[in-house]
Every structure is written in structure tokens, then in C-alpha cells.
Amino acid sequence: VIPVSRRQLLGGLGLAGAGVALGPMAAALGSVAAPVVAGGATSDGATSGGPGGGASGGSSGSGANRTYPFYGDHQAGIVTPAQDRLAFASLSVLDGITRNEVRTLLRDWTVAAERMTRGQMVGETTDLDTPPLDTGEAMGSAVGGLTVTIGYGPSLFDDRFGLAAKKPAPLVDLPPLPNENLDPAFVGGDLCIQACSDDPLVAFHAVRNLARLGLGVVDYNWMELGFGKTSSTTDSQATPRNLLGFKDGTRNIKAEQTDLLDRYVWVGNETDQDWMKGGSYLVARRIQMFLENWDRDYLEDQQNVIGRTKTAGAPLSGGREFTTPNFHKKNDQGQPVIPANAHIRLASHEENDGLRILRRGYSFTDGIDPVRGTLMGGLFFIAFMKRPDQFVTLQRKLGTDDALNEYIQHIGSGLFAVQGGLRRGQHWGDGLFV
Amino acid sequence: VATVVAGALAVPAVAVPVALATPAGAKTTTVNVTVTPQGCAPKPAKVATGQVQFNVKNKNAGSVTEAELRSGDMAHILGEQENLTPGLSGGFGLVLQPGKYVVYCPGASKQQTAFTVTGTSKAKNWKTNAVLSGAVAQYADYIDQNTATLVTSTQAMCAAIDAGDQAQAEKLYAQARMFYERIEPVAEVWGTLDANIDARANDVAKPSDLKGFHKLEQLMWSTNTLDGASAYCTELVQNEQKLATLVSNASYDPITMATGATDLINEAATSKITGEEERYSNTDLPVFQANVEGAMEVFNLLKPALQKTNPALVAQIQQRYQKVENAIEKYKATPGYDTTGYVEYSTVLTPQRRQLSTIVQAFAESLSKMSGQVS
Fold first, then answer.
1. pLDDT, tens digit (0-9, with 9 covering 90-100), for B65-111
2. pLDDT score for B84
3. How far is CA A351 from the centre of its chain?
4. What is the pLDDT of residues A225-273, one digit of tens each?
5. Which of B44, B52, B245, B328 has the most CB atoms around it within 10 Å of its CB?
6. Does ipTM exceed 0.85?
7. Would the pLDDT of A56 be above 60?
């Protein structure tokens, strides 16, 4: 560990508002190597993921010390194998903040996030007279495959920062949708940070430190911690269970299905904004599950609501977990074996003209519902897609007819444009703030 | 649980994971399955119906790593132990009904071995049980009566609306809703009909889609007008009449009844407690009472049967019901808010709602245990 002074890292933060070519943190890129990972088993910066490398590409290190490349064709944290834990924050830019201040913050975030995903601290401070640059709680923790993904909400493109001409046409607030009862405290945001790691402390640390860099520029709208992944995003991952006790994400798009990713997840040449190429749209929905009610439902009905068996996760039409559901199969009374309003039927691409989205959600709990006295928790749904209307189409159907609606309610919502991946030397916001 | 009334679905439910449904004191039969390159023959290959524990061990099969129990036609995996490399062991437990099964280990030279469960099926036979079939018939009458009164009470509200008497229409609103809230799980079976009658503002895709009771509620209490209400009321009555026709031809079974009772109290606990249901009118307490009445009607009809299968559950439900009654007793008033017999729900504050919720949750939890006792 090489001690360095704050000035080498964040020198001049706060002075650097005025259109500098590189953000203050960016200027210090590569000047230190202060691994966070314990035991010296770090995966240092010189791993894969240089220019042109896909962020979905290979990881470095193994087990808890795994790292994923920060740079690539796409931002990491989308097709990256879903890590176990999530920290997600929606932030809004404070009144009176200028375009340059936002741009500089995004540059600072780039440098800090890139370091953290390598297992480095935001900055090393040995000066006893100053507060430490890094908040420190992740020291000694393995990286756990940390990824940091940044998105821009529709409101960022209003008249405050001169970004109206850079707004992608599909980036408009989600319309009112059925079976939602949105808490205004959990809606929208100018920016979002999605940090995922197998270690909850590492994910939390990433969000906390980025938000700290943004003090005076941005303010938290809302934040959520996810304690268990509810979707697998690669063939090699076992399907996790959600809080309903069912396997979730069995039919999710997987990283290996590159044709489906191109068709349904990655923004391509059809976009009206160059900076969105290789990007995606992130829809976040805070979905409360009425878990006590669900737990009182008898097993056969739970299985009918979902359309799968609870233990094996096999479709009710037979086979095993990954057997393709047969939505046409009928029982001896002529009723569909997978009921007409079963969740997996209504969500299936077969019944939605082929439409798919990449789900990457997490179970969450925020303690106790203050009025009901029941568990306040459920699914923090995150999905990535080529166009937000993919989600709108699916949710209009699910929100109206899904048998599961009796047990869930959407209570928070956000839509964010996630720009394409960065090459070394590029920063979040490049392409927007030209 | 809104799928069951008209033509219950016959999904094979022969196997229930032990962890989810272990009958207290039931005897467990152990079956050993040794996986070898040759196969995975279960020992014994024939057991009596009931709880069965499969212990699976991979002795020396490098090419075989799992064993499954499947239905006789191979279509359904009932239990499995995966990822067993040589030397490892594991297992799974199931409650098995009589019939033919297959133990399956893909990759072995003999992949399938027959497995038989003997004994008498505990198939659902309520139709031959006079107590249960009587309860089902009486429940059908209860549904029919409440639906008929729902129509006439809504018509009375429409008459007040047509006469321009908003105060009277508001009083009749809560009264009409009581009849719906006693039988709602039955109405929910006909998906769009329930939405057309009872959808709340947040249930619909667009604000302009809102119709039925809660549109009228919104007009009268929030917009404070009867403008446009007449047409909505007429449509509401038409939908209620459709419901009356459907329920007169519907058939029920004891499980539907039992789970419907649970659903009513779930609903009370989830959307009445928070005030979401009657967000404009604040008449949540009378419809809460209606949910409880609908659930207790089911309980009272099933009680003679439950008394035989599980008297302790009967006692618990009665005790917890009494706590619910005691809790809502405090909010009764004469004539009450809009002559509902209750105070306005907005005067019931969060700590009191929380207290009510805890009591209602316990009641619902007890009710949910009825379905397994009446099949």
C-alpha cells in the first residue's frame, strides 16, 4: 500500500467546476494502488476490459475476489452474472446546480467507481488532520464481483442542464399502470446508481461513497438494499428463489443468448441518440408482496398462481425446471393445465408476441409495514430492455390479469437510460455533455 | 386465490414436500436409493401411502449425478436430489398418495425403476360427506341471496343519485357495498366483472378506466358531485346482474369456501386496514365488518365437519374471531358516520389500525388452516 495524499486523488474537488477536460478524480487515475481486498489476492487494474472489451466479458480472480471489467461495449451490471446483493439509489440534482457541476460529478463517479470495482478504495488518506477520502467500511472485504451501473432519469433532460436535445425519444416517464399504488417517496430521480456485489457491505459502500462525492450536487431520493438475487442471468447460475418461495427467472434472457440481447436489451442503431448505443433502459419497480396472505394460500393454488411447482420449479404442464411450458395442454376437464391467469403464462414471450426483458431483481425488506404490522418487503424488480415500452406492454397485461396481483402491489418506480459502455479514458456523461 | 370456483383445476398434487406439509405424528417410511453406473433401484420398491423419506447416495457413478421421483407417466418431477458426485449423499421427503411412480437417474444404464405406493387414496370425497355437501349447498344459497340484495340495494342508491340526493346516495353506498364485501372471493373468479364492480383507482390502467363502486365513491366524496354518476350507477347494476346470473349457475366445494373465507380476511387485513379500499368515503369499517361476516358464514357452515376433524382449530377460530369483534366494537357508533353504525375511518389512527391489523392477521392465519381439513 502506497500512502498518497488526498491532493493526488481528489485535489481540487469543488474547485473543478469549470469545464475541465478531465474531472479532478480522472486526473489522478492510476496514481495509486491501494487494494481493498484482503490477503493480497487482488485482481488489479490490468485485467481484461480495455477498449472494445465487453463488460459482459470474462471475470478476473475467483470466488469472493472476482472482479468484472469496468470498461467495455456495455456497462457492467446488466448481463454480468447476477451478484447476490444490491444497493440501489435514486438521486436528484439540487436546485441551482450547473451543467458543469453535473458533468464533473459524473466524471468523479467514473473514476471512483472504476477503482472500487477493482477493489481499490476511492482514495487513500493518511493525513490525520483530514477526514478520510474513503469511508472505509469495505476495507478488508473481497470485491465480490462489484459492478456499478449509472442511469439517467427523464427529468435530467429538462431545461436545467441544456440536455433537452440529448434526450432519447423513448425516455419518458412510465404511464400510470394497473395495480400500482406508488409512494411518491419512491418514484423517479435524475440519476440512479445500481451497485451489485456478493458482499452487501461492498455494494452499500459503493453507493455511499458515490453519494458522498455528490454532496452539494445531488441528494438522495430513495434507496433500497436487496438481500438476495431473484434472477439468474447466465446459464451457469442456479435459479434463485424469491420471497414467495418459488424459483424466479427460469426463463430470463441469459448472457449467452446474444441474439436475444441484441433484439430486446441493447439499444442499437435504431436510437435517435448516439450516446445510447450499446446502452439499455433500466426499469426499477419496488413491489410489495403481501407475504402473510401468500403464506396462507394452499399449495395447489400457489402453484396455479405461478404456473410452476413450488419445489422443483417445473411448469405445471410437466417436465423439469427448464422444460418449455406447454401453454396449450389441457386437463381432463378441458381446462388449461397452466391456468389462463398464471403468472408465467401472462409474462411469457409466447403470449406477448415474442417480447422479452432481462430481469435482474432482488428481494428486499424494509422492516415492518407501519400500519399493517406485517413484513414490508418483496421484490425490488430491476429489468433492462431496448425500449421502456417493453415493460409497459408486459405490465399492462400482468397488472390487469395476473393471478399474483392479489398478493403484490407496485409501490415504487423509476425509469433510467443507461448509456453504453465506456472505454478507458471515457467517463459517464460523455456524449451527453458535448 | 381467485381461480377455483368454476371447474376446479386438476393439477397433479400427489406429492407435497414434507417441509411444507408434515402431518403431526405421521409415520415416515424410509427408502434408500443407491446410485451406481447401472441404475438407482429404490429399496424397498413398494411402500404404504404417507410420508416417505428418500435417502439418495451416489456410490460410484461418475456419469450419473441425480435421482428423481417422477409420476408414473414420467411427466412430473415430484422430488429430486441433484449434484451428487460419487461418494456424496442427500435426499428429499414427500407425502405420497397411492399409485405408480418412477425413480429416474438420467445417465445410468437402467435409468428408470418402478416404485409403487399402496393403500387407500385420500382423494377428495366431500360429495359423499353429508355435512360437507350440505354446507356447500347452503353456501350457494348465501351467495345467491347476497348477490340479489346487492342488486336491489345498488338500485336504491341509483334512485337517490337520479333524484339528485347526494346525501342519501352516500348513505346507501356503504349499505350496498356490504353485500358485495361478504361474497367478494366468489365474484373475483370472473376477473373483469370484479374489476368492473369493485376496482380501486390504483387497480386500473388509466384513470378514465375507473368505473363501478369506487368511481361513484370518487365522484361523491372527492369531486363532490353527482354529475355523470347516473350512467356509472346504471352500468354497475348491469354488471351486478351479470354476476347474479353467473353465481346462480356456479358450483362450489369446501376448499373454495374455506379459502374464500381466508381471502376475505386477507383483504380486510391488506386494503381495509390501510384505508385504501374506501379512500374517498372513509367507510372502511362497515365493509371490514362485511368481510368478517362473510368469513364467519363459511366457518359456521363448515364447523360441524371441522368439529370432527380438528376441534382445536374450531376453538382457536372462535377465540380469534371474538378478539376481532371486541376490537371493532370500539368503533361502533349510533347512528355513526353516514349512518353506517361506525365512526369515520379517518379517525382511527395508525397505532389503532396497527392493533386491529395484528388481531385480524391472527384470525386469517387460523382460517387458512380450514382448507386442509375439509377436503
1. 889 898 888 877 788 888 888 888 888 888 788 889 999 998 899 99
2. 85
3. 26
4. 999 999 888 888 889 999 999 999 999 999 999 999 999 999 999 999 9
5. B52
6. no
7. no
Helix axes B311-329, B350-367, angle to 10 degrees: 160
For residue range B184-198, what is the model confidence (pLDDT) as tens digits? 988 877 768 998 999
Question: Cβ contact (<8 Å) for A399 and B350?
Answer: no
What is the DSSP secondary structure assignment for residue A120, as one 8-state letter?
B
Chain B hits for A339, CB-CB cut-off 8 Å, are 3, 9
DSSP string of A295-359, one letter each residue? HTS-HHHHHHHHTB-TTT--BTTSB-TTSPP-TT-B-TTS-BSS-TT-HHHHHSGGGTTT---EE
Which residues 144-203 of A are in CB contact (within 8 Å) with B?
175-181
- For residues B264 and B192, the answer to whether their CB atoms sit within 8 Å is no
Which chain B residues contact residue A301 at CB under 8 A? 1, 3-4, 259
* Residue A41 identity: A
pLDDT, one tens digit per residue, over A128-139 is 888 999 999 999
Helices (H) and strands (E) in chain A, counts: 9, 10
* B7-26 residues touching A, CB cutoff 8 A: 7, 9-11, 13, 16-17, 20-21
| pLDDT above 90 (res A37) | no
- Over residues A89-117, the mean pLDDT reads 97
Query: What gap in Å lies between CA A83 and CA A286, rounded to an integer?
Result: 19
Average pLDDT, chain A: 87
The three cell numbers locating residue A221: 431520493
Say which of A292, A296, A339 has its CB closest to residue B9: A339
Mean pLDDT to the nearest integer, B364-372: 93
| B146/chain A closest Cα distance in angstroms | 23
Segment A378-408, tens digit of pLDDT: 999 999 999 999 999 999 999 999 999 999 9
Report the Cα–Cα distance between both ends of chain B, in Å, rounded: 16
Cell of B236: 354497475
DSSP assignment of A171-203, as one string?
--PPPP-TTB---GGGB--SEEEEEEESSHHHH
Spatial separation of the C-alpha atoms in residues B285 and B356, rounded to whole Å: 11
Cross-strand bridge partners of residue B80:
B68
What one-character-per-residue DSSP string does A350-384 give? GGTTT---EE--EEEEEEE-TTT-SEEEEEEEEEE
Name the minimum distance, in Å, from the CA of A381 to any CA of chain B.
19
How close A5 gets to chain B, by Cα (Å)?
51
Is residue A106 over pLDDT 90?
Answer: yes
Q: Do A332 and B10 contact (CB within 8 A), yes or no?
A: yes
Give the integer Cα–Cα distance in Å for B42 and B30: 10
Cβ contacts of residue A296 below 8 Å, gap of 6+? B262, B266, B364, B365, B367, B368
Residues of B in contact with A320 (CB under 8 A): 68, 77, 80
DSSP for B242-280, written as a single string: HHHHHHHT----HHHHHHHHHHHHHHIIIIITTT-TTTT
Helix/strand/coil for A285:
strand
| Interval B292-349: pLDDT, tens | 999 999 999 999 999 999 999 999 999 999 999 999 999 999 999 999 999 999 999 9
Cβ count within 10 A of residue A6: 18
Closest-CA distance, B200 to chain A, in angstroms, reads 9
Substitution target from A311, A346, A404, A407 for chain B, most B beta carbons within 10 A = A311
Among B10, B76, B368, select the one facing A332 at the smallest CB separation.
B10
Question: One-letter amino acid identity for B4?
Answer: V
Question: Angle between the B166-187 and B284-309 helix axes, to the nearest 10 degrees?
Answer: 30
The pTM score is: 0.80
Kindly report, residue by residue over A170-203, the tens digit of the pLDDT.
999 999 999 999 999 999 999 999 999 999 999 9
Instruction: Please check whether residue A399 is in contact with residue B205, taking contact to mean a CB–CB distance below 8 angstroms.
Output: yes
